[in-house]
């Protein structure tokens, strides 16, 4: 029997479907319910050409997020078994409800798959039912389903993963910026080093894979234990504010000597 397209795509990217129960994120059964009208009744399922262009150039994350902020996405609704019967060596679903599809990686990270159009959705799972929603609604669904990330066009040649900061920005309707350029984050970093007498200043830089690198300029003569303590305290202060945490996908530190003053 040939592989299910959805299974093949998921295996190729190291994810599997998360177990689904008979309830949605609000804890209410889907049985007998319809997916509510999302305002896209005349949608023919075609992907927006601007979105497709942005997805082909995912390294330009600012442009991608700008286009996504006004995009329509398709959230897949799939059958989830609610009652299973066992007959000898065979197992069969006796009944099923509809549920939002979620995925889980081997490391336990949960993802909400979303799609730019019907061809992209059907390449992943021809049986999935599309629910057209705004990107904000899709991101809110991801958060409700306890997903860490969203994956756009999973079965396509180049799926795009939206990191937690991107999901949060879409869900709240806020313009996304990389953390090192985000004024809110930069202010939080400045506040976090204010009470560190051995830190002359701090700067925010782009780290690897979307991480924020905080560069601490410190006085000479500090041993490794002192430097580690400074980084730990600064990191803890940054993490105390939930809004700041939501804008940072990962945090790293670099220690550099304080630049000599020019005379």
TrEMBL record:
Pfam families: SseB (PF07179)
Domain SseB protein N-terminal: 51-169
Protein origin, superkingdom: Bacteria
Annotated spans, Disordered: 1-43
InterPro entries, A to Z: SseB_N
Protein name listed in UniProt: SseB family protein
Organism: Metallococcus carri
């Amino acid at each position: 029997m040939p592989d299910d397209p959805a299974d093949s795509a998921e295996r190729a990217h190291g994810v599997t479907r998360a177990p689904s129960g008979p309830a949605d994120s609000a804890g209410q059964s889907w049985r007998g319910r319809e997916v509510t009208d999302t305002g896209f009744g005349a949608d023919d399922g075609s992907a927006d050409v601007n979105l497709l262009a942005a997805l082909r150039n995912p390294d330009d994350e600012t442009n991608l997020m700008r286009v996504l902020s006004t995009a329509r996405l398709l959230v897949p609704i799939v059958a989830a078994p609610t009652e299973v019967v066992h007959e000898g060596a065979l197992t069969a679903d006796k009944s099923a409800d509809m549920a939002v599809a979620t995925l889980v990686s081997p490391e336990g990270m949960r993802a909400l798959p979303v799609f730019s159009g019907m061809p992209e959705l059907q390449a992943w799972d021809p049986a999935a039912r599309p629910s057209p929603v705004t990107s904000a609604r899709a991101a809110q669904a991801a958060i409700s389903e306890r997903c860490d990330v969203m994956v756009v066009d999973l079965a396509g040649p180049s799926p795009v993963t939206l990191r937690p900061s991107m999901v949060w920005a879409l869900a709240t309707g806020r313009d996304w910026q990389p953390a090192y350029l985000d004024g809110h984050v930069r202010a939080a970093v400045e506040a976090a080093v204010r009470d560190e007498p051995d830190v002359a200043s701090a700067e925010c830089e782009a780290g690897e894979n979307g991480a924020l690198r905080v560069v601490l300029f410190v006085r000479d003569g500090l041993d490794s234990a002192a430097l580690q303590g400074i980084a730990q305290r600064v990191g803890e202060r940054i993490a105390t504010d939930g809004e700041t945490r939501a804008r940072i996908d990962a945090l790293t530190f670099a220690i550099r000597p304080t630049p000599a003053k020019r005379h």
